[in-house]
Write a structure and sequence with these properties.
It contains 9 helices and 11 strands. It has a 6-stranded mixed β-sheet, with no helix packed on it. Strands 4-10-9-6-7 form a 5-stranded mixed β-sheet. It has 3 domains: about 40-155, Helix Hairpins (Orthogonal Bundle); about 160-185 and about 270-385, Cupredoxins -  blue copper proteins (Immunoglobulin-like); about 200-260. Helix 2 packs antiparallel against helix 3 (about 75-110), helix 3 packs antiparallel against helix 4 (about 125-155) and helix 5 (about 205-230) runs antiparallel to helix 6. Helix content is about 50%, strand content about 15%. The chain has helices spanning about 1-25, 35-65, 75-110, 125-155, 205-230, 235-260, 265-270, 330-335, 365-375, and strands spanning about 160-170, 170-175, 275, 280-285, 290-295, 300-305, 310-315, 320-325, 345, 360-365, 380. It has about 375 residues and is an alpha+beta fold.
Length: about 375
């Protein structure tokens, strides 16, 4: 209530001041377009105060809050990203202060004076060359450095790089690690079920997948037969929907049968040592990782803010990126003076009503700590006989 009273009083005061100014001009027999040198000088003085206040407040906020834009980088390539980020800000602020500084100085220096007329010119090739070449050179530097960093981030991983799959679904993440062979077993969405949540391809999972399809097809066929016999009545829309579903599952079953002929035994053994977890993503400090992303349902986006990494997770496709963590979770807690700090994996796409809950704690630790965690907190990724 007090806010609205103050707002209304301010508007009334401003209106009265404008009215008083208009009456003053009428009393002095001055036209509205007649502005005295004194008025121009006062405007220039006010403009100068505004310029000093604006630049001063920007410098103050940069000094006080400028280092809080991003958390400390915890990956090797993140330092390159931060360098580019800071370089862009340096260029932006340099241009901002230069252009606005010149604008305000000219507005003050060349304020209106009696007997002084503005000089008009339509074009100047030298000025046009300056404001074309300088921005082009600055953009070229940014683009070249950005491409170099991007090429380094997306280059082929080294032989020592560990492969990890991140599987996204509404609204959780699952991490599947390659085993001693550092190779992930093949996976296919058609094999996803309660016993095989990641759809890993094994002889057992294909047999189970066919059995699941047969069970579903038989159930739908039985319901359709009941409708035909008149023992159970369904609407035409429901009958059409059940027919469509049955045809879909028949096609999936046929594809799984083809998979049995496609995948030979030597291709499937790589999955035998894969293991997974849904609780936390654990990484070894100083170890480079190649992440492979899959989605079960809709588009997600794997976002690691502390590692300066993000990748879309697209249904039906595999996307990839790599990074090397360089600071353990324990060291980061000490650095930030926050014993509750944790790295985190987020979904950066609005993927549904519980999108904000789609997150996973990331723990960076030593190899010994990782091995101890692995024994107690992971499961084999293949379907057991």
């Amino acid at each position: 209530m007090i806010f609205w009273i103050i707002t209304i009083l301010t508007l009334v005061t401003a209106a009265q001041l404008m009215r008083a100014s208009s009456l003053s001009r009428k009393i002095s027999n001055k036209k509205e377009e007649d502005i005295s040198d004194a008025s121009n000088n006062w405007n220039a003085f006010g403009f100068a105060l505004f310029t000093i206040a604006m630049f001063g407040s920007i410098v103050f906020m940069l000094v006080k809050y400028g280092n809080g834009l991003l958390p400390e980088s915890a990956s090797e390539h993140g330092q390159q990203i931060d360098f580019l980020f800071n370089l862009n800000w340096i260029i932006v602020f340099a241009v901002f202060f230069l252009v606005n500084g010149v604008l305000f100085i000219f507005a003050i220096k060349y304020r209106g004076k009696k007997g002084q007329k503005a000089f008009y010119f339509a074009h100047d090739n030298r000025l046009e060359m300056i404001w074309t070449v300088i921005p082009a050179a600055a953009l070229a530097v940014i683009i070249i450095l950005g491409l170099r960093t991007w090429n380094d981030i997306t280059s082929a991983p080294s032989d020592s790089t560990k492969v990890v799959e991140l599987f996204g679904e509404q609204f959780s993440w699952t991490a599947r690690y390659s085993g001693e062979d550092n190779k992930l077993g093949y996976a296919d969405y058609k094999l996803i079920n309660g016993k095989n949540p990641l759809g890993v391809v094994t002889p057992e999972s294909m047999v189970l997948g066919i059995a699941e399809m047969d069970k579903t097809i038989d159930k739908l066929y039985s319901r359709l037969q009941s409708d035909s016999a008149g023992t159970v009545m369904f609407s035409e829309a429901k009958v059409h929907e059940m027919n469509s579903r049955m045809e879909k599952f028949i096609r999936i079953k046929e594809r799984i049968i083809k998979m049995q002929n496609h995948y030979t035994a030597d291709k499937l053994v790589v999955a035998n040592d894969d293991f997974y977890t849904k609780s936390e993503l654990h990484l070894v400090v100083g170890q480079e990782y190649q992440f492979v992303f899959r989605s079960k349902d809709v588009m997600h986006s794997a976002y690691f803010p502390h590692f300066r990494a993000q990748m879309n997770v697209v249904p039906g496709q595999r996307t990839k990126f790599k990074f090397k963590p360089i600071i353990t979770s324990k060291d980061m807690r000490v650095s930030r003076e926050n014993p509750d700090f944790n790295y985190i994996l987020l979904c950066n796409k609005i993927c549904g009503e519980s999108h904000s809950n789609m997150k996973m704690i990331v723990v960076v630790e030593t190899q010994e700590e990782f091995d101890a965690w692995k024994k107690e907190n992971t499961k084999t990724a293949i379907v057991q006989k």
